Known about the structure:
Blueprint: H1 13-21, E1 25-28, E2 51-55, E3 62-64, H2 95-107, H3 110-113
Antiparallel strand pairs: 1-2, 2-3
Amino acid sequence: MRNSSGRFTYRNPNVLESLRNSGQIAVRYVDGDGQQSMLYPWNPNGSEDAVAAICSQDGRHLAMMPHSDRSFLSWQWAEYPVDWKTSENQTAPWIKMFQNAYSWVTEERSCYSCGFL
């Protein structure tokens, strides 16, 4: 992960509570057991409440600190779980985000009517 900042912090604690209550915390930093973590290397920037990404209320917009564009291949991960590695699987879980975006753009025909495609 390349960053010297980028961690989620909240001047007003009500913001974090609001994000929690509305289901807008999209991704959290977790340890090897899938448990939320505040510890390095699992939470590399010390983001409060282990928040790695938040989304808009309608779910269409994602604000994310981990550089998924820099870690979609398994060799790009410093801490890649051994049990995930196989000779035929060279991609990391982040690739699914890009595959989903591609599928949505190519399959979502309603965008033609709004002039985006």
